[in-house]
């Protein structure tokens, strides 16, 4: 269950759509491709969404690790968080 601070806002979703290459006019998004083909933008958008979700999961793992291992060094995050973040680099 996500807390309020972890929920993705509509503004964040819109910003990810812009970063993925979608064009915006007023309240509508579109592509600059012939026939409305937006595969490239959709793939980029999906990657951005997945990266945000991975980071949210890694942060949860870090919090649990720090709670379970209070003696851990400040820069230690636990192997689970490292594995989750590494999935985006594969």
Instruction: List the domain count as a whole number.
Output: 1
Principal-axes geometry comes out as elongated
Helix tally?
A: 3
Spatial order of strands in the largest sheet: 1-2
Unreliably modeled segments: none
Integer average pLDDT: 83
Oligomer: single chain
Structural class: mainly alpha
Strand runs, count: 2
Strand content: 5-15%
Termini separation: 27 Å
Give helix % range: 40-55%
Order of helices and strands: HEEHH
Radius of gyration: 17 Å
Largest sheet, described in full?
Answer: 2 strands, antiparallel
Structural commentary:
With 90 residues, the chain is mainly α. The chain has one domain (8-89). Helices cover 53% and strands 7% of the residues. The radius of gyration is 17 Å and the shape is elongated. The two termini are 27 Å apart.
Please tag this protein with its features:
90 residues, 3 helices, 2 strands, 7% strand
Secondary-structure topology with pairs:
Blueprint: H1 10-19, E1 23-25, E2 28-30, H2 39-68, H3 79-86
Antiparallel strand pairs: 1-2
Helix pairs in contact: 1-2, 2-3
Concise structural overview:
With 90 residues, this protein is mainly alpha-helical. The chain is built from three helices and two strands.
């Amino acid at each position: 269950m996500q807390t309020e601070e972890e929920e993705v806002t509509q503004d964040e979703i819109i910003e990810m759509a812009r970063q993925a290459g979608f064009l915006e006019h007023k309240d509508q998004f579109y592509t600059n491709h012939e026939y409305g083909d937006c595969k490239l933008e959709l793939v980029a958008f999906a990657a951005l969404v997945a990266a945000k979700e991975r980071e949210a999961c890694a942060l949860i793992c870090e919090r649990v690790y720090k709670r379970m291992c209070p003696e851990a060094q400040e820069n230690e995050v636990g192997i689970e968080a490292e594995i989750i973040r590494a999935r985006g680099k594969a």
